[in-house]
Every structure is written in structure tokens, then in C-alpha cells.
Amino acid sequence: EDQVTQSPEALRLQEGESSSLNCSYTVSGLRGLFWYRQDPGKGPEFLFTLYSAGEEKEKERLKATLTKKESFLHITAPKPEDSATYLCAVPGTASKLTFGTGTRLQVTL
Amino acid sequence: SQTIHQWPATLVQPVGSPLSLECTVEGTSNPNLYWYRQAAGRGLQLLFYSVGIGQISSEVPQNLSASRPQDRQFILSSKKLLLSDSGFYLCAWSRTGSGTDTQYFGPGTRLTVL
After folding, report:
1. What is d(CA B28, CA B20) in angstroms, rounded to the nearest whole number?
2. Weakest mean pLDDT among A9-18, A28-37, A71-80
3. How many angstroms separate the Cα of A50 from the Cα of each of A1, A27, A47, A54, B93?
4. Is the per-residue pLDDT at B98 higher than 80?
5. pLDDT at B100
6. Is A65 helix (H, G, I), strand (E, B) or coil?
7. Chain A residue with minimum CA distance to B56
8. Pairing assessment for the beta strands A45-50 and A10-14 based on DSSP bridges
9. Are A97 and B46 a contacting pair at CB < 8 A?
């Protein structure tokens, strides 16, 4: 059974204080890893897909990286508008996704 | 471009009442469709998925059912709601074919069962 674990559960940063979120996974043959952002009361918004170890993708202040056992979402010089819950997920059969429980990020001034 | 709609946005229902949540997708054809539930402080739990009209797979035995009467319409239903059915319900779609296609989510429906 696919498993996804995210850490930390919650993270509080000051504006400009860079950090990383972790997503570790156990799957029988990785076929990709997804990162989403979810604002309170809204549906998850797609950020990145990573397909192979060593791959990196960037979007504004976010950079996602992938190894054979985990993925990191690096946040460089965050701003308050980056505050959200970040979810990672791995695909199983029939495009079904197994999600982690997310990391709640709060960025303060 | 593709758009996914869900309604209602919020719903408060008494225990034992029926439920019908609707999801529609625009701008694509023959999508895979998904229903998830997100309980407070927990991850997204896949409830149902559909690869075509009338084709529904259930992931979790429960008080809910799903139907796909049209290509881009997905409905989540219950005959009698339980307190434990409260949560945030999300519909998602993906392109058919590859098993690793991105899922795109709707805005969600907040259901409170009293």
C-alpha cells in the first residue's frame, strides 16, 4: 500500500526566512509525485509534478526536488501570501492519488 | 481552458436527510472524475472515481454513492446522512490515458451534518 508522510505538520516562518518541507513516500514503483497548495476553505491548487529522482522544478519562490525516497519543497524568502497548507501525493492505479496530511505554513511579517 | 464547478459551496443538513452534491467539468471530454473527502486535520480520502459514463469505482464502503449520468457530470449522493459524513468534499478531474496525469480540483463543498 502506498504511503505518504509529510513533515513538519506545521511551520511558522518570518518573512524572508527560507525553509524546506519534506514529503517521504513508500510506493511500489514511483510514477510521479505531485505538490499542491491549499488555502483555507478552498480546493487544492496544482503546483508541480516530479517524475524521476534528481528532477527539480521551480515556480516563483518555490522549488521542488525529488530523490528515490522523498521530495522537498524549498521556500526561498517567503512572503505572507505563501501561507497555506502544502500537500504532496503519489499516483497509484487508475490515476488515483495517495495524499499526505500536509504541512501548514504560516509566514508572518 | 478547463474549469471545474461544484455546488453547493456550503450545506447544513440534519441527520437522516438525503444528500446530492454536483460536480461538472468544462473544456475537456471523457475526463477521469474523482470524489474526495477531507476531514479536519486529515488528508484527502478518495471516495469514488470514474473513468467513463456509468463507470463508478468505490474506494471506501460507506453511506455514500456516486453516479456519472453525463460525460462531464459527477454526483455524490446519500439516502440518509450520518454525523460522520460531515466534511469538506472535493471533486477532481484528470485526463484519461496516462496513470500519472495531474488531478485538478474544484472549489469544494463544506457539508455539516447536525
Report:
1. 23
2. A28-37
3. 20, 14, 10, 9, 19
4. no
5. 63
6. strand
7. A94
8. unpaired
9. yes
How many Å apart are CA A35 and CA A100, to the nearest integer?
10
* Range in A39-43, A65-69, B11-15, B92-96 with the lowest mean pLDDT: B92-96
Cell numbers at residue B52, please? 467513463
Close Cβ partners of A85 (under 8 Å, ≥ 6 residues apart) = A37, A38, A39, A40, A102, A103, A104, A105
Please state, in angstroms and rounded to a whole number, the distance separating the CA atoms of residues A25 and A32.
11
> A with B: how many residue pairs have Cβ under 8 Å apart?
63
Closest CB from A4, A31, A49 relative to B99: A31
CA separation for the pair A66, A55 (Å, rounded): 6
* Cα gap A36→A98, rounded to integer Å: 12
